[in-house]
C-alpha cells in the first residue's frame, strides 16, 4: 500500500470530519420541524400565523430566561423555538430577543412587569440547593405591554402568547362578571381552580352581586348555580341578554346536599330554570345517570362505625365521551374531555328567532332518576331503579343564539321588599344574544380537583372564549388539554380481562413465538444437516 | 449493492442460527414490557401515553447494541478471517455497510415485535398516533447511530468481550453525557457542546412526536461518521 494512498485516505478522513462539522452547523441554521401530534401541539395555529395582519407597528417580544435554566432544561429552547416561529411568520412585524436577566442586570426592571424569579432545584455534585431563575415573556407594542410571568408549559403557551399579543395590539381585555347562584357557595371559596385559570388567561373577572345591574363594560356573564336566584335577581340578567349580552349558565334541576348525608331534592319552583325554558333550554328537575361514568373513592362506614374507602362506579358523575359531542360546534370540535357531576337531562324547545344546538349528550346507555333520589354511594343498588323504563340518551349542554324572548315580557319589573333599586320596565330583545347552558351546576366547582377533571374548567373557559371575545382564539385554546385518561372501557370486568390479555400477549405469546421460531430453525437445520450427511455416506458407499 | 446483499444475508443467517440473537430479542421484549407494565405501572397511572415504554430504550440500547455488534469485526479478527475478507473483491465500505445493515435489520425486527404493546393498550385510551410514530422513528434512528458506534468499536477491539465492554462504556458515555454534565455542573462554555453530543438529548423531540431536522441531521451525521471511520480503520490495517 503506497504512502500516497495512505495520505489520500488521511485527507479524505479530514474532509469527512470537516463535512460532518459543516453539516451540523448548517442543520442548526436551516432547520424545519414537523409536528406529527394529532393536536399539532407544537405547530403554530392559523390565528397565530396570521397575527401580522392585525399589527401596524412592530411587536417586540423579549424572553427573559436564566442562562442556567436554558442550558440545563430543554423547555426554554422549545419556548425560544416557538417565539422564533412567531417572528419568522410575522413578515417583520414581530421581533424576538432572548435575554439573561442576571447578566444584563434587568431583574429589577422586570419586576415592574410582574416577571419574578422562580425557585429551581439544583443538584451539584452531592448537594441539593435552590437557585432563583427566570423564565418570563414580555410583549411590548407601542407604549403597552403584556407579560407572561412564568413561561414553562409549551403545550399551552401558544394560546397565552397569541392572546397577549392581541391584547397588547388591540388594547382590550375581556371583562367577565360571575354571579354565584347557590346559597351554599361563593366564588372565593368554591371556584378557586376556575378563578385561577381565568386569571392566568388574562380575563378581568369580578363577582356580580345578585339583584344588581350588570355593568355596561361586561363582555360576558357567568351564572354558576341557580338555587337562590329569584325574579328580582334575574331581571338584570334577562335585560343584559336583551341588549345582546353573552352568558354562560351552569344550572341544576336537583339539589344535592353533600353536607347533609347526600340528601337530594328537586329545586322546586326555580326562576332561572323557568327563564332558560323561555329561551329554549328546558332543564328537567331530574337526574341523569350514565354507564359511562367515573369510578371514585368514597368514604363509607361499616356497622361498627369504622370508616374505610371503597371504589364505586358512580353513574351520577358522567364522563362525557367524544363520540357524543357535536363535531361542528367550535366549542366541541376539538374536545378535550368533560365530567359532569349530578347533571339533569335537558331538552331544546323551538323558540321563534332562536337557533339552538345540543353540543353535549350522554351515551345511549343513560337513564334517569325522576323521584326518590338516592345519590348516596352507600345505596349503590338503588341507582339502577329506573334504568329499564327511562333508558336512552339525554342532552347535557347546549348553545342558543338569536333574539331571545324576554322572561319578563308583558310583566312589570319585579320588586323586592326593602330593596331601594327599582327596575325600569323591561325591554324586548334589541340585539342577538348568545348563551351556553350546561345542566350541571357543580362541574366547575373545586370538586373537579377531586376527580382530576381539570378539563372541566378548560371547557368552561373555552365556552367563555367563544361567548366573550375573539372566537378565533378558540382553535388554540381547545387543543391544550386533551383527555388522555385510560377511560375508553368503562366496564371493570372487561377492563380486567383486556389487561390480562395484554399481559398474555406482550409478556407471553410474542416472546414464546420468538423462542418457537428459534427452535423451529434449529430443528430444521439439524434435519438438513442429517440429510446432507446421509447423502454423503450414500455417495461414498456407491463409489 | 451486489456486494452488500450477499454479505448482509450471510450475517443475518449467522445471527439467527445462533441462540444469542433469540436470547437478546426475548430479553429485550420481556424487559421493556415488564418495565412498562409493572415498573412504570401503566394501568395504575392511567395515562394514554407510551413515553414510559420508550423512556427505557436509551438504557436498554447501552447493553443491547454492543451485544448485537460485538461479533461484527472482533470475531473476524479473532478467527483470522479478517485478512481473508480483505482479499475478497468487495470494497471495505460495502462489507461495513452490509454488517451495519444486518445489525440494523435485527434491531428493526426487535422493534417490530414490540408493536403488540401499543396495539393492546390503544384499546384503553386515546393515544396520539403521531407521537407513537415519532417514538418508533426516534428509537430506530438512535439505534442506528448506536449500531454505527458499536460497529466502529468492534473494528478496533481484539475480541468479542472487549468489543462488548468498550462498546457498552462508549454508548453509556455518549447516551448520558448530557445529563451527567448537568449533575456535575460542568464548565458552562462546554456544557452545550457536551449536551449536543448526547444521543439522549436528540431523542427527546422524537418522543414528543416532533421531527426536528437538527436531530435528524445529528443521527445521520453520527451514523455516517462512525461507519466511515470503521472503513478507515479497516483500510488502515492494510498499511501495517
Please give a structural write-up:
The complex is a heterodimer of chains A (543) and B (240). Chain A contains 16 helices and 23 strands. Chain A is α/β, with parallel strands linked by helices and 543 residues long. Chain A has a seven-stranded mixed beta sheet with strand order 9-8-10-11-23-22-20, sandwiched between helices. In chain A, helix 9 (192-200) crosses helix 14. Chain A is globular. The two termini of chain A are 49 Å apart. Chain B is mainly alpha-helical and 240 residues long. Chain B is built from 13 helices and one strand. In chain B, helix 1 (4-16) packs across helix 7 and helix 9 crosses helix 10 (160-183). Chain B is globular and about 60 Å long. The chains are: A alpha/beta (543), B mainly alpha (240). Chains A and B meet through helix 1, strand 1, helix 3 and helix 16 of A and helix 2, helix 8, helix 9, helix 11 and helix 12 of B. Strand 1 (33-35) of chain A pairs antiparallel with strand 1 of chain B.
Amino acid at each position: 500500500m503506497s504512502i500516497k494512498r495512505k495520505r489520500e485516505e488521511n485527507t479524505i478522513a479530514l474532509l469527512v470530519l470537516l463535512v460532518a462539522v459543516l453539516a451540523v452547523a448548517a442543520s442548526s441554521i436551516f432547520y424545519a420541524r414537523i409536528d406529527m401530534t394529532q393536536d399539532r401541539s407544537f405547530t403554530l395555529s392559523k390565528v397565530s400565523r396570521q397575527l401580522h395582519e392585525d399589527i401596524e407597528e412592530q411587536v417586540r417580544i423579549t424572553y427573559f430566561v436564566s442562562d442556567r435554566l436554558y442550558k440545563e432544561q430543554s423547555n426554554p429552547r422549545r419556548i425560544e423555538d416557538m417565539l422564533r416561529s412567531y417572528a419568522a411568520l410575522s413578515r417583520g412585524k414581530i421581533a424576538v430577543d432572548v435575554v439573561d436577566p442576571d447578566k444584563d442586570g434587568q431583574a429589577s426592571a422586570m419586576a415592574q412587569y410582574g416577571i419574578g424569579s422562580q425557585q429551581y432545584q439544583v443538584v451539584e455534585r452531592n448537594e441539593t440547593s435552590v437557585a432563583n431563575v427566570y423564565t418570563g415573556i414580555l410583549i411590548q407594542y407601542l407604549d403597552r405591554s403584556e407579560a407572561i410571568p412564568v413561561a414553562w408549559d409549551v403545550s399551552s403557551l401558544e394560546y397565552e402568547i397569541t392572546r397577549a399579543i392581541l391584547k397588547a395590539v388591540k388594547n382590550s381585555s375581556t371583562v367577565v362578571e360571575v354571579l354565584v347562584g347557590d346559597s351554599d357557595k361563593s366564588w372565593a371559596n368554591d371556584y378557586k381552580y376556575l378563578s385561577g385559570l381565568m386569571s392566568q388567561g388574562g380575563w378581568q373577572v369580578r363577582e356580580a352581586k345578585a339583584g344588581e345591574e350588570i355593568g355596561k363594560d361586561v363582555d360576558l356573564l357567568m351564572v354558576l348555580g341557580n338555587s337562590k336566584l329569584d325574579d328580582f335577581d334575574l331581571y338584570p340578567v334577562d335585560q343584559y341578554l336583551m341588549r345582546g349580552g353573552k352568558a354562560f349558565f351552569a344550572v341544576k334541576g336537583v339539589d344535592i346536599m353533600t353536607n347533609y348525608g347526600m340528601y337530594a331534592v328537586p329545586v322546586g319552583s326555580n326562576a332561572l330554570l323557568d327563564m332558560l325554558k323561555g329561551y329554549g333550554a328546558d332543564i328537567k328537575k331530574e337526574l341523569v345517570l350514565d354507564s359511562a361514568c367515573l369510578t371514585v373513592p368514597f368514604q363509607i362506614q361499616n356497622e361498627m362505625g369504622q370508616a374505610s374507602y371503597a371504589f364505586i362506579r358512580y353513574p351520577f358523575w358522567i364522563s362525557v365521551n367524544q363520540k357524543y359531542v357535536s363535531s361542528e360546534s367550535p366549542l366541541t370540535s376539538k374536545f378535550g374531555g368533560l365530567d359532569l357531576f349530578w347533571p339533569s337531562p335537558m331538552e331544546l324547545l323551538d323558540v321563534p328567532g332562536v337557533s339552538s344546538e345540543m353540543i353535549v349528550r350522554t351515551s345511549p346507555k343513560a337513564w334517569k332518576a325522576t323521584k326518590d333520589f338516592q345519590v348516596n354511594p352507600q345505596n349503590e343498588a338503588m341507582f339502577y331503579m329506573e334504568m329499564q323504563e327511562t333508558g336512552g340518551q339525554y342532552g347535557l349542554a347546549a348553545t342558543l343564539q338569536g333574539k331571545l324572548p324576554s322572561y319578563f315580557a308583558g310583566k312589570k319589573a319585579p320588586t323586592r321588599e326593602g330593596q331601594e333599586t327599582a327596575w325600569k320596565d323591561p325591554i324586548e330583545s334589541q340585539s342577538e344574544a348568545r348563551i351556553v347552558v350546561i345542566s350541571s351546576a357543580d362541574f366547575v366547582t373545586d370538586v373537579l380537583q377531586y376527580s382530576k377533571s381539570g378539563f372541566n374548567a378548560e371547557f368552561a373557559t373555552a365556552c367563555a372564549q367563544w361567548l366573550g371575545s375573539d372566537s378565533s382564539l378558540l382553535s388554540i385554546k381547545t387543543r391544550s388539554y386533551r383527555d388522555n385518561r385510560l377511560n375508553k372501557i368503562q366496564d371493570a370486568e372487561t377492563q380486567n380481562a383486556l389487561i390480562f390479555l395484554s399481559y398474555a400477549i406482550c409478556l407471553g405469546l410474542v416472546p414464546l413465538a420468538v423462542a418457537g421460531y428459534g427452535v423451529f430453525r434449529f430443528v430444521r437445520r439439524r434435519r438438513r444437516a442429517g440429510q446432507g450427511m446421509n447423502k454423503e455416506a450414500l455417495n461414498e458407499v456407491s463409489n | 449493492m451486489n456486494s452488500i446483499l450477499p454479505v448482509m444475508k450471510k450475517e443475518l443467517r449467522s445471527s439467527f442460527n445462533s441462540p444469542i440473537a433469540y436470547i437478546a430479542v426475548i430479553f429485550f421484549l420481556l424487559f421493556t414490557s415488564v418495565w412498562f407494565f409493572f415498573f412504570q405501572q401503566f394501568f395504575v397511572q392511567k395515562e394514554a401515553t407510551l413515553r414510559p415504554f420508550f423512556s427505557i430504550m436509551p438504557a436498554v440500547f447501552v447493553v443491547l447494541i454492543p451485544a448485537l455488534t460485538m461479533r461484527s469485526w472482533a470475531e473476524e479478527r479473532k478467527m483470522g478471517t479478517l485478512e481473508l475478507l480483505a482479499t475478497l473483491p468487495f470494497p471495505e465500505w460495502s462489507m461495513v455497510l452490509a454488517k451495519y445493515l444486518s445489525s440494523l435489520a435485527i434491531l428493526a425486527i426487535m422493534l417490530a415485535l414490540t408493536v403488540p404493546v401499543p396495539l393492546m393498550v390503544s384499546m384503553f385510551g386515546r393515544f396520539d398516533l403521531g407521537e407513537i410514530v415519532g417514538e418508533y422513528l426516534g428509537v430506530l434512528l438512535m439505534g442506528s447511530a448506536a449500531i454505527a458506534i458499536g460497529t466502529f468499536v468492534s473494528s478496533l477491539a481484539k475480541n468479542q468481550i472487549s468489543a462488548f465492554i468498550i462498546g457498552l462504556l462508549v454508548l453509556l458515555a455518549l447516551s448520558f453525557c448530557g445529563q451527567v454534565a448537568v449533575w456535575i455542573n460542568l464548565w458552562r462554555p462546554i456544557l452545550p457542546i457536551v449536551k449536543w453530543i448526547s444521543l439522549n438529548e436528540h431523542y427527546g423531540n422524537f418522543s414528543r412526536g416532533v421531527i426536528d431536522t437538527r436531530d435528524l441531521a445529528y443521527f445521520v451525521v453520527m451514523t455516517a461518521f462512525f461507519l466511515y471511520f470503521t472503513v478507515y480503520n479497516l483500510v488502515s490495517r492494510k498499511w501495517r
